[in-house]
Amino acid sequence: MEIHDVLESLRDGKISVPKARKLLSLYSIEKIEEFAQIDVGRKYRKGIPEVIFAERKQLDEVKKIVQKTLVKSDFVLVSRIPKQDYKKMLVFVKRNKFKIKSGKNTTTLLIYKKLKNTGGKIGIITAGTSDIGIAEEARLTCEAMSCSCICTYDVGIAGMHRMFPVIKKFIQEDVDVIIVAAGMEGALASVVSSLVDVPVIGLPTSVGYGYGEKGVAALASMLQSCSLGLSVVNIDNGIGAGAVAANIANRAKAARN
């Protein structure tokens, strides 16, 4: 029974307060053997789904967490799956008859039984093709949170003329927030923020070399931006950028409704 079903049953007098309390307690923490405690109620409490960081987990552990989570939830994000485990994970998902959304240049997966598309609208833009994987991670997070995304990639300031049709489209589509993924010096986030009247989430990526390599210059540039309305997440934190953007977009959609 989902949380809204519990609350409706309580309202209609079909269940008692102690029964409702017991049912709601099931949406707290789910322990899996001795290696994981998953926050199955997070999406109801925060609007952000459970995310499994798979990078340093054993494949069998990830599978058990996915199965347990999808008993209580309609979807789960699995981020940074090791490349040697990625195909095996796809086989596991199909064998269990779950649905799946993947992304270009990323091993992050959105595994689900059903998804809604009832949230806000988000624009996602990257400076270069090397930034796409991190942007796709953000997209999958936004879609897990019921948002629709308009994505345009490889429009950095090295050819700034490419950017203006994209910004025009974002304005025409009335996006609620924009995510800008950029490496090197990360200047695209400041430029985009200076042209729009919606919140912009700067997503620095670890693309770059030499002085300020591995995203350090991009992060510093975004943090010191002169353009107001720009917020910044950590280097390569596509999940974090998507979560913040989707929360903003969903609140905007709720306010309009």
Automatic annotation (TrEMBL):
It comes from the Archaea. One of its GO terms (molecular function) is hydrolase activity. SUPFAM superfamilies: N5-CAIR mutase (phosphoribosylaminoimidazole carboxylase, PurE). One of its GO terms (biological process) is 'de novo' IMP biosynthetic process. Residues 120-254 form the PurE domain. This is PurE domain-containing protein. It comes from Candidatus Nitrosotenuis uzonensis. The lineage of its organism: Archaea, Nitrososphaerota, Candidatus Nitrosotenuis.
